[in-house]
Amino acid sequence: MKRNYLAVFFIAGAFLSSTCVAQNKAVPEQFKYKVDLKKAGTSTEKIAGLDSLLQSLVSQKKVSSVVGFVAKGGTVVYKKAFGWKDIENKVPATPDDYYILFSQTKAITTVAFMTLVEKGLVKIDDPVSTYFPGIPDKVITVVHEDGTYETRPVAKPMTFAHLMSHSSGLNAGLVGKFRRKEIQQADSIRKVNGDTTAGRTPGPGQRTGGAGNAKYLKDEMIALAKYPLGFDPGSEYSYHISSNMLAYMIELISGKPLRQYVKETVLEPLGMTQTDWYYEPAALSLFVKAYNAVDGKLEPATSLFSEGAVSKEQTYAEGALGLNGPIDDYAKFCQMLLNRGEFNGHRILKRETIDAMTKVNRLPEVNAGGKGFRFGLGFELYNENKKPAPEVSNTAFAWGGLYGTEYIIDPENNMIALYYLNMPKHEHLYPLFLSKAYKLFRK
């Protein structure tokens, strides 16, 4: 019998709320910035230690800029930037700078979808085919030299829980390899014909999947659905493209463009006024420039993604990436999750919904994510076998972005921590920051 974990949490949550109301403490609705460090459980010496670490990353040219943000119980004990927003023009970094968030978009897309669940418009265990009949129901088994392939029926239909846990099978395995080969062949033909957009040059905005020139997300998702799956839904983990299909489902079910629905249900209620897929051209000056760390030197990296965020005539937004913004904007989203669904005077999701997203592993115990890798609905779930730093509790959950943006929500420690870079090639220095962040509150 199919188990509906969300229904289980709704029932459990209703029972707990009716018996334990007196024990529930009011959650912080805004960040508290005026801090008595001693009352917050830290000290100027510990803050200085974190300063020293982040400054050393800049001094050693391991990063061009870095921003750290730490809040415990809604009290912000750390929000500082180090390094350069623009090295060539000697513009120092500030905590208000905009960063390319890449896959941090996925969690926001997932939360937006769960608002549809709470409205009763869809269930997480519903087959996706109920809303999108074109979704694949075959699994690829063999690809022949001539480009033809063989398939078999899926063992079970794809559900929305599969999309949110990256276990849908879309574009996975042999299918991903087959599609990449097709795109490369198409590019070769375009080059021969003198097409200057060959080479998968992205169209306006930030995007992945397809040939990178679709005007709307639905165009790429309808094209993707013509291919079989790489594995049976729920049987394996294959990252990324599922969040785009989830975003298209948001559009189909809500009847609104993704950007509009996300802003109305998540960003605006939380006061995340600077987070968006794209902006007016003048906003380019708000973005941190991208750099690579190469052999002890910092070299300019592509500005394609920040420039794509301010392109004119935008029509494309996807669920897997594309959001941008300053660190404290995303911190509001993290605090909402720590508060189990509420912040800024708005309840985005019910407490039991947050629990269903962040306490239940949706993947097989052995999966492509590696030893100990667990994933809920939209978030990696940390545990004794896999965590980014020893101090992290087993209740913590998180995800990050390609250019070095990271965050963690840790209910057991009642804290959030965010760490932002804008570097496509960088050392994985986040664990150093995270350990120091936790030690702010350790004796």
UniProtKB/TrEMBL annotation:
One Pfam assignment: Beta-lactamase
What superkingdom does the record give?
Bacteria
Q: Which GO terms describe its molecular function?
A: hydrolase activity
- Tell me the protein's name: Serine hydrolase domain-containing protein
Q: Look up the EC number in the record and give it.
A: 3.-.-.-
Keyword Signal recorded: yes
Alphabetical list of InterPro entries matching this protein: Beta-lactam-related (IPR001466), Beta-lactam/transpept-like (IPR012338), Diverse_Enzym_Activities (IPR050789)
Q: What keywords is this UniProt entry annotated with?
A: Hydrolase, Signal
**Species this protein is from:** Spirosoma flavum
TM regions (residue ranges) = none
The residue range of the signal peptide is: 1-22
Which stretches does UniProt call biased (Low complexity)? 196-205
User: Region annotation Disordered: residue ranges?
Assistant: 193-212
Residue ranges of every copy of the Beta-lactamase-related domain listed in the record: 50-424
